[in-house]
Amino acid sequence: MYWDKEKECMPQEELKNLQLRRLKEIVYRVYAFVPAYKEKMDEVGIRPDDINSLEDLKKLPFTNKQDLRDNYPFNLFAIPMSDVVRIHSSSGTTGKPTVVGYSKRDIEIWAELMARALCSAGASKHSVIHNAYGYGLFTGGLGVHYGAERLGASVIPTSGGNTKRQILLMQDFGSTVLTCTPSYALFMHEVIEEMGIKPSDLKLKAGIFGAEPWSENMRREIETKLEIDAYDIYGLSEIIGPGVAIECPCKNGLHIAEDHFIAEIIDPITEEVLPDGAQGELVITTITKEALPIIRYRTRDLTALQRDKCECGRTHVRMQKVLGRSDDMVIIRGVNIFPSMIESVLLNIPGVEPHYQLIVDRIGNLDVLEVQVEVSEKIFSDEIRKLEGLRKTLTAELESALGIGVKVRLVEPRTIERSEGKAKRVIDKREF
Ligand code: DLL
């Protein structure tokens, strides 16, 4: 077991005191060592001495992805490069990549948080962890890897790709825990079937999936198909990587490691801090990071916080499953739509496979949403009339859930591109 009850079940009062002490330290540190923070704080007339309660956090300016880009590559680091022991980076598909750095102690804390996360999802030193998150600049692979070693489990560092070989290894090595994106887990299941293997022939018991949004219906789908218990894990490189938050066996939200991070929810438009329970954008402040401390980072992820007691005994605040990133939200005729909303509807209908893509286009002056979804082999070989019936049902269900007109296109099994990492759900062909 790697359950640090002293920290994870710390009484709220004590936790708040610890957070405040750490927050004050970090604010002093960024003010002293990171010119960009000093400049921003000076601009609004806030000095480190002004932070005397957790409420005072509100006074500090936000940090966002643009700040990381503007300070590319290392200008937000708060320690000398000689003390930086690891660098990760985003792929930079939407602009300059964002770069994050770690001190030796940051890596230790990350490993500890990941060990805690794996333990929360039922892993132990007896587990064989098949880690198919990508190794490299992406934080998924190495993040899980160090946590698994810290836990004392046996980790298989397969990274993504070469799926058939992965499955043979899983079979031969008796892997008990699978870690990868939920979309890759589904793809693995397809390959398992193609290879004539039954999930029950494997020893897999649990999966720890994250790095992209996935709905409750997707969880059910994966759990049934792979015959495992599926847990949600959340994180982002800017904050530390995977391990910022993890579900416990109660699966009623993801506990955020509050001894290292302070979470807030804001209205993404007005930037006003919202009360617990309200849905909005998650904002995170790191309170122990040495190399890249981040104050009030706007994650763009939409969720809500819950503080009521959790049966597992952990006292750390829970965030709801992420609805989506504001970047993935498509606005169609004024309606905000997240892929996860569509996923929930699709997966409630028998005959539909959990592979879909949204194509957004502008025809004339009108925005049009097409939902392409795969249907099962059996349905596809049925008569046209049945397919048409399914298409109509899907259209009606989607239109009633979203409140806009939708075009549904049923496609043959295995025609939508599979992903070994984060799935691409939206193709926006509109020109702005
Ligand atoms: O995806 C870190 C990670 C690796 C998390 C492995 C979990 C497992 P980035 O590549 O920086 O880091 O992407 C971070 O991915 O802001 C969310 O939009 C999304 N994301 C991560 N976990 C979840 C999740 C890693 N459980 C971005 N549910 C975040 C929904 C998630 N979205």
Quick one: how many beta strands?
21
Distance between the termini: 52 Å
Q: What's the overall average pLDDT, rounded?
A: 96
Number of domains: 2
How big a fraction of the residues is strand? 15-25%
Biggest sheet statistics: 9 strands, mixed
- The CATH topology of the largest domain comes to Rossmann fold
Strands side by side in the biggest sheet: 4-3-5-6-7-8-9-14-13
Poorly predicted regions are none
Q: What's the CATH architecture of the largest domain?
A: 3-Layer(aba) Sandwich
Short description:
The protein is an alpha/beta fold. The protein has helices at 5-8, 12-33, 35-44, 65-70, 104-120, 139-151, 163-173, 182-194, 216-226, 339-346, 377-381, 384-402, and strands at residues 84-89, 99-103, 128-131, 154-156, 177-180, 206-210, 229-236, 241-247, 254-256, 261-266, 280-286, 297-303, 305-306, 318-319, 324-325, 330-332, 335-337, 352-363, 366-375, 407-411, 426-428.
